[in-house]
Amino acid sequence: MITENSNLYAHFDRQITLHREKELLCTADDRSYTYQKIADTSAQIAHSLTNLGAVPGDRISVQIDKSPQSLCLYLACLRAGLVYHPLNLGYKKSELEYFLGNAEPTLVICDPANVESISKIAQTVSAKVVLTMDANGHGTLSDDANSQEQDFKTVTREPDDLAALLYSSGTTGVPKGIMLTHDNLLRNTESLVEAWGFTEDDRLLHALPIFHVHGLFVAIGCVMLSGASMRWHATYNAKAVIAHLPECTVLMGVPTYYTRLLAEPTFTTDVANNVRLFVSGSAPLLEETFTAFEARVGHRILERYGMTETNMNTSNPLQGIRKAGTVGPPLPGVDVRIADDAGVAVGVGEIGNLQVRGPNVFVGYWKMPDKTAEDFTDDGFFNTGDKGVIDEDGYVAIVGRAKDMVITGGLNVYPKEIELFIDDLDDVKESAVIGVPHPDFGEAVVAVVVPAAEARLSAEAIIAACKSDLADFKVPKRIIFANELPRNAMSKVQKNVLRDQNVALFN
Length: 507
Prior knowledge:
Elements: H1 8-18, E1 23-27, E2 32-34, H2 35-51, E3 59-63, H3 68-79, E4 83-86, H4 93-103, E5 107-110, H5 115-124, E6 129-132, H6 140-145, E7 162-168, E8 176-181, H7 182-195, E9 203-206, H8 213-226, E10 229-232, H9 238-244, E11 250-253, H10 255-262, H11 269-272, E12 277-280, H12 287-297, E13 302-307, E14 311-315, E15 335-339, E16 352-357, E17 364-365, H13 369-375, E18 382-390, E19 396-401, E20 406-408, E21 411-413, H14 415-423, E22 428-438, E23 442-451, H15 459-469, E24 478-481, H16 495-501
Parallel strand pairs: 1-10, 3-4, 3-5, 5-6, 9-10, 9-11, 11-12, 12-13, 23-24
Antiparallel strand pairs: 1-2, 7-8, 8-17, 13-14, 15-16, 16-18, 18-19, 20-21, 22-23
Helix pairs in contact: 1-8, 2-3, 4-5, 7-8, 10-12
């Protein structure tokens, strides 16, 4: 069935109409919400946002805790044709100043505890109103929405109209706004629903945050486009997951979720007996985790590969061989190739630059046309920045990442941003930030710091300074002092040497 309205919500609405009285989600403390209740609340919020002056195409910046009402806010933005701009809860003042200044939102929604500081920032970027919503869904936004009508006509959107604006921390210290359209999200979700066999009988254990692609678009999209349901956890807790997993059929997580499950003696085959699919993404899944998981509960985790700019690109098959250490073949409609530095495609088994093309790929960087042009080839492929290889069966393996990005607990950290901050501290001559193996987070952020002459620096002081200005997941877990940084003949810092020197730091 094809709808003339390309608004993603119009496609969700078909399942809402079919399943009005069905439970869409149930929270960890057993509060139940039907499809109709979520639709009604999202309609009320959509009225509130538009009554406050938001019009289609306006950005709505959101930094709030995960709750059923936060889901309603996302759906309300879709319905009203607004551009949803989610922000990591850990972002601090300096980070928020950049994001709000660049996105230029019409409205900002934040936790009541942060309203004073965010209001000051919002005033400088000409946001009309700052509203609040707490972890229980209460606040000035909900207060206003409660008096609104429970019906809202979904705004018509074209395929290339923006649905969301997400930021990827810049490799040069300048974050890039990633423009995702309604068609990007719809086409990718349709592909995933088919590839992963989602139906109305599925129940997803949703423990992911909803400020990035994995929890927001992949998990929620698969549920709402198939008529499935969710057990909704505000945060990830292995014991809580084990308690609710027997009622669920699917779990999506980052590798850390699976290592923490394996650390629990109560995670047994009985707990996983009803689950048909475990999905892992957002960071590389170690082969030993894949093997240990299968040995424990008899399930082979399905690893897939995506990024903010592209949503999902590849996936190990639902039916068929799931190869440890690979992210599977390309999804239907997605072209993946491996090219050399000259842009020429290489053969099977050869390592090169991974490039993707398809309806899942974003339309460009917000306010950065030159950067957009730089990252796309003449024939429309996006340069992911990852190094990959494709085997004889068409399975893709990611073998490295460009620009030294660190993935810690499934979250991306770009070293340059941390280095710029540390280098600006008193008594610091220079620094290099690297990722090293960590048993829980996959990788841990570590800073190697060269003090200025006669400086009196302490690791504790540097970490405290970072905590005051940077999101917690970006703060180095260890500071290592050095007399100098290793460099090659061209004076480039050899981060590979630093990683090798500290590979066992957390063992």
